[in-house]
């Protein structure tokens, strides 16, 4: 591994899944399976629903498994019923937060400027923002993938970003939860474009160290191939992260 190559990160996005009793068991299995060998090679993060962030953070003390939120409000506090601020996530023990996931962009109509404001809030609270980008099937078929991803990056990444407070996740919308994945060559093309764009957005000195995750139907069976792609520095895992053995097997792609 070259000196500049970022340490890999595998993050599990549990989405709106998980009740306390059954989830604590899964998290315990993740802790148990995060062996010294795996810890030496890859960072692990679990992003449970907001109701479980505090408990998971407490349970994870001393395990080196990081905990993240799945979204945050741009403001620190106020009359925003149902929302959670980045400061609240940090207070609950989170170190990361996903922003701009396609499900937020689609179902909550979040635009790049909203995502950027949330990433700013994450940084203000001392969290690492995992900024998600990705094209729809229509955009890919129209040959617009790179243009769409570049535009999302320019609009969503705050100016104060660096390799410590920013992770980028490339998730083609059509690959999420479908069992479909782009070819390794397609992933390589998009990740190279993201790295190039980061040079402008984060700065030449630090851009090579920003982790770029691939997300969308990552499974134990395809993890090794996807994680081996140039400029892929880990994975954002949805469905497979709900099963500890599968999540750990994906991270295990970095053992070989
Ligand atoms: O945040 C995770 C992604 O949406 C991927 O979900 P998936 O692994 O179930 O396709």
Automatic annotation (TrEMBL):
Q: For this protein, what reaction is catalysed?
A: L-erythrulose 1-phosphate = D-erythrulose 4-phosphate; D-glyceraldehyde 3-phosphate = dihydroxyacetone phosphate
One GO-annotated biological process of the protein: gluconeogenesis
**Keyword line:** Cytoplasm, Gluconeogenesis, Glycolysis, Isomerase
Active site (UniProt):
101 (electrophile), 171 (proton acceptor)
Q: Name one GO cellular component term.
A: cytosol
Q: Where does the UniProt entry say this protein principally localizes?
A: cytoplasm
**Which molecular-function annotations from GO does this UniProt entry contain?**
triose-phosphate isomerase activity
User: Which pathway does it serve?
Assistant: Carbohydrate degradation; glycolysis; D-glyceraldehyde 3-phosphate from glycerone phosphate: step 1/1; Carbohydrate biosynthesis; gluconeogenesis; Carbohydrate metabolism; erythritol degradation
- What EC number(s) would the UniProt record show? 5.3.1.1
Which Gene3D superfamilies does the UniProt entry name for this protein?
A: Aldolase class I
What's one Pfam family here? TIM
Positions bound to substrate: 13-15, 177, 217, 238-239
Q: Which SUPFAM superfamilies match?
A: Triosephosphate isomerase (TIM)
Q: Which family does it belong to?
A: Belongs to the triosephosphate isomerase family.
Q: How does it assemble?
A: Homodimer.
Q: What does this protein do?
A: Involved in the gluconeogenesis. Catalyzes stereospecifically the conversion of dihydroxyacetone phosphate (DHAP) to D-glyceraldehyde-3-phosphate (G3P).
Can you name this protein?
Triosephosphate isomerase
């Amino acid at each position: 591994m070259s000196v500049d190559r970022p340490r890999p990160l595998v993050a599990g996005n549990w989405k709106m899944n998980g009740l306390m009793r059954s989830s604590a068991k899964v998290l315990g299995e993740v802790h148990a399976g995060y062996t010294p060998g795996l810890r030496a090679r890859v960072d692990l993060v679990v992003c449970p629903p907001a109701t479980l962030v505090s408990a998971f953070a407490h349970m994870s003390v001393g395990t080196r498994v990081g905990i993240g939120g799945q979204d945050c409000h741009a403001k620190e506090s106020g009359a925003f019923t149902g929302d959670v601020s980045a400061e609240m996530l940090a207070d609950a023990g989170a170190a990361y937060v996903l922003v701009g996931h396609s499900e937020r962009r689609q179902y909550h109509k979040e635009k790049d400027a909203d995502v950027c404001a949330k990433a700013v809030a994450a940084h203000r609270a001392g969290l690492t923002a995992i900024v998600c980008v990705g094209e729809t099937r229509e955009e890919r078929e129209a040959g617009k993938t790179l243009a769409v991803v570049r535009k999302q990056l320019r609009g969503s990444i705050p100016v104060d970003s660096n390799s410590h407070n920013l992770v980028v996740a490339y998730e083609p919308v059509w690959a999420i939860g479908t069992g479909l994945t782009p070819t390794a060559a397609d992933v390589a093309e998009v990740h190279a474009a993201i790295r190039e764009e980061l040079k402008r957005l984060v700065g030449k000195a630090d851009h090579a160290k920003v982790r770029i995750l691939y997300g969308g139907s990552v499974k134990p069976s395809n993890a090794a191939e996807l994680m081996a792609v140039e400029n892929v520095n880990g994975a954002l895992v949805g469905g497979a992260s709900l099963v500890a053995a599968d999540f750990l097997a994906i991270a295990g792609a970095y053992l070989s």
